[in-house]
């Protein structure tokens, strides 16, 4: 880790939550899961509701069914009979208008005697109920002495919780975090804030945590909109700075002769689609220009991105330079290599694979070839970043599934060349607003047309109750030679837990189908993963036909004769993710089937989401629909996809703010690219506030 130059005022916010009073190891685990590891994460954990405790009637007037804060005298305690835990502990209280019974289940008598001493006055707040014609309050939310009434008699924020964490504890932690929030210099344009009616940052934060009405809970309320905008501006500014850096390195015109690509195209067993031709034209135009290319090639699984990337790299080769293609995993890199290699044979090009597993003399030879320019195309993983991998002349860097790489890593590969053009490929059908947040202002080419002859995947929703039938049906299918992916539930977004689920399912299927079942998961060594994938992909008879997997089955992995995709707990996945998984089957000309197993009952939204998958195969429609139905953060199973997640901004609601933030960031960068004006300084603080330290490193490295 490099040393961060984060301004000292922010240090309290970047302290771990365990530095907050009363947060020990047990609570910190819960809070980490809910909000995050550092104090700042608690600031971004905004209330999801309110309870109005200002209503303070007399006992006799307190309407049943409402939340009330009552001032009462404690009259008498009636503990349950010994050893009968089903009878509650009752405490009778009164004021001059009537009586109310406080009811406690499984409570400690001595604790209640201390909190509610007979003869004393207490303030109790909670929901008033009517039971047998008498008023009662079960487990009041607050019981305090009269002197502390003000702390209770307010509009109380309600926070999203997690099992095991009590509202009081979380509230206390959040208050402590808020106490640490410093006043910060204004980084927003004052006139813009004024027009929007937005408070200053600190005021906005306090207001967002003290909503006085339902309206103030709206993400469009001034306080929340301001905080969301701060977050979005930091995102857009960070992306803008990365882009600025990329642009600073001048590009150079790369003009292909067409010689190599024509040969390869002629040898293809198919015609390029219109979308492929159009994208290729866009890419080549960029390459031919003086500017550096920064282009995103978006296209569904199976839309044929690889051949476009190859032809772009060949353009570089025709100009006497080299091309590199980087994938996020070993499996994907190897698969690209194996797809591309035979295609380039007719053109007599040397192409090599560089991964962490390339070692010793073999590696030496490859490295040398890359350096001498003898190797025309290099396919690889992160291993390409290694220092001693030096290119003779790298003209184009293609990065596949880029969103798994960090924002600043995007350009690292390009640094291996001079004026290197960058093409980022993604199979994630990203809604337009999200494209902005993930890629900033990259130019986009879309492969929105599938190669001909693809049959739609028959997608069905199946209640998990019918697991047995599903297994039987799968059994019949493999008898006929089918290959089946079985993707296991994404439960905790933690590899360990997901793995347990996959292993259980594997055991069940193995008991039924024996050696015909294989398991693949993220914790396996790359070599073992490859082996499992290879065995499954092997077209000869006798190998495994069911591949049980956590979601590690890589989006780009190609097993053409796989026809069935079973996805357990489909309701827990992002739609785009399912859509990508589904794209894995039915690629070899045979019709594919996708079974989405869900646990009943499905909520209305969950149902609508899965129905969307059944109804359409257009990745972009699916992504937009998921965004509409679920709102920003959860689309795409964001955590898995590595796309940016926002803490306060919601891309489904704040679309306009995203566009405004983009424009704002552009203007800032045009006027103050070093962030050296007073506002620029404040904006640096904003970047640090949202952990965009990488972007600031860009500034420093100039
Ligand atoms: P992606 O990387 O976009 O998921 P691929 O590049 O792996 O897609 O292409 C998927 C499959 O489609 C490959 O088997 C490829 O050979 C084939 N393919 C690509 N372009 C065409 C085309 N124009 N016509 C027919 N098949 C194509
Ligand atoms: Mg260029």
The CATH fourth-level homologous superfamily of the domain at 259-447: P-loop containing nucleotide triphosphate hydrolases
User: What's the CATH class label of the domain at 259-447?
Assistant: Alpha Beta
Rounded to an integer in angstroms, the radius of gyration calculated over CA atoms is 30 Å
Structural class: alpha/beta
* Helix content percent band: 25-40%
CATH architecture of the domain at 259-447: 3-Layer(aba) Sandwich
Percent of residues in beta strands?
15-25%
Average pLDDT value? 88
Report the end-to-end length measured between terminal Cα atoms: 19 Å
**Main sheet overview:** 7 strands, mixed
Bound small molecules, by name, code or SMILES, are: adenosine-5'-diphosphate, magnesium ion
CATH third-tier fold name of the domain at 259-447: Rossmann fold
The 3D shape can be described as globular
Give the gist of this structure.
The protein has 702 residues and is α/β, with parallel strands linked by helices. The protein contains 24 helices and 22 strands.
Can you give a write-up of this model?
With 702 residues, the protein is an alpha/beta fold. Among the domains are: 54-153, Nucleic acid-binding proteins (OB fold (Dihydrolipoamide Acetyltransferase, E2P), Beta Barrel); 259-447, 3-Layer(aba) Sandwich (Rossmann fold), CATH 3.40.50.300; 458-616, Rossmann fold, CATH 3.40.50. A 7-stranded mixed β-sheet has the order 6-7-4-3-2-5-8. The protein is globular. The site of magnesium ion has 9 residues, from loops.
């Amino acid at each position: 880790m490099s040393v961060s130059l984060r301004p000292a005022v922010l240090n309290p916010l970047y302290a771990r939550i365990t530095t907050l009073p009363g947060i020990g190891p047990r609570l910190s685990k819960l809070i980490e899961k809910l909000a995050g590891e550092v104090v700042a994460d608690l600031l971004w954990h905004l209330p999801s509701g309110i309870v109005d405790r200002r209503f303070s009637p007399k006992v006799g007037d307190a309407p049943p069914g409402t939340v009330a804060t009552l001032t009462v005298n404690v009259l008498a305690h009636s503990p349950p009979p010994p050893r009968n835990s089903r009878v509650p502990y009752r405490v009778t209280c009164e004021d001059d208008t009537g009586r109310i019974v406080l009811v406690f289940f499984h409570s400690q008598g001595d604790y209640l005697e201390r909190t509610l001493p007979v003869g004393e006055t207490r303030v109790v707040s909670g929901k008033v109920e009517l039971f047998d014609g008498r008023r009662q309050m079960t487990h009041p939310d607050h019981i305090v002495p009269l002197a502390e009434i003000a702390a209770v008699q307010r509009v109380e924020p309600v926070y999203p919780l997690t099992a095991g964490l009590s509202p009081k504890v979380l509230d206390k932690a959040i208050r402590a975090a808020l106490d640490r929030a410093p006043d910060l210099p204004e980084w927003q344009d004052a006139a813009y804030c004024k027009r929007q009616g937005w408070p200053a940052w600190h005021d906005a934060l306090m207001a967002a945590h003290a909503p006085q009405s339902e309206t103030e809970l709206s993400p469009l309320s001034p306080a929340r909109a301001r905080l969301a905008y701060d977050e979005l501006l930091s995102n857009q500014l960070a992306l803008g700075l990365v882009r600025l850096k990329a642009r600073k390195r001048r590009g150079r015109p790369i003009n292909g002769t067409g010689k190599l690509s024509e040969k390869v195209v002629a040898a293809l067993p198919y015609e390029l689609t219109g979308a492929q031709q159009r994208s290729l034209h866009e890419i080549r135009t960029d390459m031919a220009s003086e500017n550096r290319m920064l282009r995103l090639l978006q296209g569904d699984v199976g839309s044929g991105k690889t051949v476009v990337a190859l032809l772009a790299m060949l353009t570089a080769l025709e100009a006497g330079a080299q091309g590199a293609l980087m994938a996020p995993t070993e499996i994907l890199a190897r698969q690209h290599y194996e797809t591309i290699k035979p295609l380039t044979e007719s053109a007599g090009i040397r192409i090599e694979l560089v991964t962490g597993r390339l070692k010793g003399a073999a590696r030496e030879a490859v490295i040398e070839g890359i350096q001498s320019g003898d190797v025309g195309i290099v396919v690889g993983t992160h291993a390409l970043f290694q220092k001693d991998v030096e290119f003779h002349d790298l003209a184009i860097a293609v990065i596949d599934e880029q969103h798994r790489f960090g924002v600043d890593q995007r350009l690292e590969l390009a640094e291996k060349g001079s004026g290197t053009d960058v093409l980022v490929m993604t199979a994630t059908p990203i809604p337009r607003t999200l494209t902005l947040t993930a890629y900033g202002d990259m130019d986009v080419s879309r492969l929105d047309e599938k190669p001909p002859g693809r049959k739609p995947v028959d997608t069905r929703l199946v209640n998990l109750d019918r697991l047995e039938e599903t297994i039987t049906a799968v059994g019949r299918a493999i008898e006929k030679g089918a290959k089946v992916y079985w993707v296991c539930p994404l439960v905790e977004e933690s590899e360990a837990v997901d793995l347990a689920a996959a292993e259980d399912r594997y055991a069940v299927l193995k008991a039924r189908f024996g050696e015909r079942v294989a398991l693949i998961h993220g914790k396996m060594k790359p070599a073992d993963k490859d082996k499992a994938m290879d065995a499954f992909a092997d077209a000869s008879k006798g190998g495994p036909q069911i591949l049980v997997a956590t979601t590690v089955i890589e989006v780009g992995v190609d097993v053409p004769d796989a026809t069935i995709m079973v996805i357990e707990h489909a309701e827990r996945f992002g739609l785009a993710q399912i859509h990508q998984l589904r794209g894995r089957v039915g690629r070899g000309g045979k019709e594919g089937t996708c079974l989405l197993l869900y646990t009943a009952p499905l909520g209305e939204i969950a149902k609508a989401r899965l129905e969307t998958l059944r109804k359409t195969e257009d990745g972009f429609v699916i992504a937009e629909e998921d965004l509409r139905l679920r709102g920003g953060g959860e689309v795409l199973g964001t955590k898995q996809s590595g796309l940016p997640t926002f803490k306060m901004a919601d891309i489904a609601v704040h679309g306009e703010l995203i566009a405004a933030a983009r424009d704002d960031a552009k203007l800032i960068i045009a006027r103050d690219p070093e962030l050296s004006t007073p506002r620029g300084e404040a904006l640096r603080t904003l970047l640090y506030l949202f952990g965009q330290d990488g972007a600031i490193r860009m500034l420093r490295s100039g």
